[in-house]
Structure formats: structure tokens, C-alpha cells
Amino acid sequence: xxxISRVSKSVRAFQYFQIYLWGILLFTVAVIISGxxxxxxxxxAGCGDSWPKCDGTLIPAFADVHVAIEFIHRMLTxxxxxxxxxxxxxxxxxxxxxxxxxxxxxxxxxxLLVEILLGASLVLFGWVEDNATWGRVIADxxxxxxxxxxxxxxxxxxxxxxxxxxxxVAKSNPKRRYLIFAMLIVILITVTGTINSLADTLYLSDHVxxxxxxxxxxxxxxxxxxxxxxIIGGFAIIGLLYLVIEEPSAxxxxxxxxxxxxxxxxxxxxxFNIVLLTPVETQIIHLGLADTLWIxxxxxxxxxxxxxxxxxx
Length: 313
Ligand code: HEM
What we know:
This protein has 313 residues and is mainly α. 73% of the residues lie in helices and 1% in strands. It contains nine helices and two strands.
């Protein structure tokens, strides 16, 4: 009787851990979106050039809305870091240090640290507001790729720590390599989208005369590249995923079809972005959909990389 209650307690602990993981994943998306709001509202220098302090103090006087936006983004990042502390402790206690879940948590924590350092470098090097330099273009591109790796690592942890243990056995989808291409295409589309977003920020800034700023001029002149790559790439992803879904050994095809739906919504929101001249609201929807697309695609890819047995670990 006592051992049954011990087993049910440990099953509950794994379930709570799963819920906690989903909370961390959703919170990470919220932090990424808050970072986008910082850029869209030109609040990147809201805290001045001090980091980790804001305006030289721990809690700044909220003189204007830019300080509040930048400070809230930094606070959310701090809360996420504490969330990772819980992840490290919970993962270690539940799985032990030799388990792939624990190793994935360590990897994800390293990516979070890189993310924080990249965010800090934007502030310390002044790659914010109306700054139009190659340094900013490169840092922004690294930053967005890192956010995708961060989200992907969390999806991997959720996948590996499911109740069926995520045991991987030999029988896999013969078209699984196509999924790597699909993921690379999403990364390419996302990087071009970020550069597009930077171009829009500079174009709409009161402090930048685009014609007199060569890098801003170049970025603004190539803004058509993102929609073009996104439309071609979007259809390529649909084609690649369809080939994977078609296989008899395909897993969780519904996730693949969900990716199709999100691509369609993303096309629509992209058109709204252009027609409405990229207000913050449509930017948030567009970025939220890009992250949703990525999360679904990584889940779908993990399920189809290998056939998953249903043994409990
Ligand atoms: C699979 C499809 C797509 C993905 C994954 C995607 C992804 C992204 C991402 C990640 C951004 C940067 C968001 C930000 O930092 O605020 C972006 C920006 C943008 N995208 Fe897309 N996009 C897609 C399709 C499209 C399409 C089809 C269009 C146009 C018809 C479009 C138009 C734009 C515009 C105008 C921006 C700049 C918005 C801004 O100023 O922030 N996108 N996209």
C-alpha cells in the first residue's frame, strides 16, 4: 500500500515537472515578445547604458514610458533566470545527472546565459534605438537565432521528460532529414524578418535620416527580401513536411498540419504588417506566430526523428 502511494507521488512529481516546463516555455515566449516591444518602441536605451542596473540604480524612477518598458523586460528576464534555477533543481532530483533530460537542461541554461549576454551587449555597445551599424545587424541576427535555439532546447526537455520517457528506438521516418531543411528555412526566414524589423524601426525613427545613413538606407532598400523568402520558404516547408507526413511511419501528423495552419496565418499577418505600416500590435502577433511555428516544427521533428516506444523509464 505504502509503495503504491510512493509510486503515485513520484508520477505526480513528473506531471508537475511537465506543467512547470510548459510554464517556462510560455514565459520564455513572453520574454522574447517583451524584448520585441523594447525594440519596436525604441526603448532599448530606456535604462541608459548601465547593465545589469537600470539608470544606475536597481529600481529606477519611471521618468518616462521607455524606462518602464526596458525595466519590465529586464525584470521578466530575471524571473525567467529564477525559473531556470527551479528547472535545474527539479531536473536533477527527478532524473539524476546522467539522464538526457538533465543534460538538455544544462544545455538550455547555457543558451539562456548566452541570451542574457547578447541582450546586455546590445545595451553596452549602444546597439539600440536609432543605432544603424553592422554590429547591431549582426548582434540582432545572433540574438534571434539564439532565441530559437533556446525555445528548441525547452521543447527537447519537454519531449524527453514525457511520461513515456521519450525512449528512442530504431524505426524512424525515412524522410526525417527533410525536417532539418525545414528548420533551417525557418531560421533563415526569421533572421531576414528581424533585419526587416530593424529596417522598419530605423525608417520610422524620428532621429534617423535614412538617406544620410548608408546602412539604414541599404536595410530599407532590401525590405522586400523577407516577404519573398518567407513565401517561397513557407511553401517549401509545407512540401517537405507533407513528404514526411505521407510516410506510413509518420508520427503526430496533426502537429505537421498545425504547422501548415500557422504558416497560412503568418502569411496573413505579414500582409497586415505591411498594409498597416507595422504597428506594435501586428509585430507582436507576427513574432508570436513565428515562435509558435518554430515550437510546433521542433516538436513534430522530434517525434519523427525516431519512432518513440511507450515504455516507462
Ligand atoms: C513563414 C512565414 C514567416 C515567418 C516565420 C516570419 C517571421 C518574421 C519575424 C521573426 C520577424 C521579426 C519580427 C520582429 O522582430 O518584430 C518578421 C518581420 C516582418 N515580416 Fe515576417 N515572417 C513570415 C512571413 C511574412 C510574410 C509573408 C510577410 C509579408 C507579406 C512578412 C512581412 C514582415 C514584415 C513587414 C516584418 C517587419 C515587421 C516589423 O517592422 O517589425 N512576413 N517576420
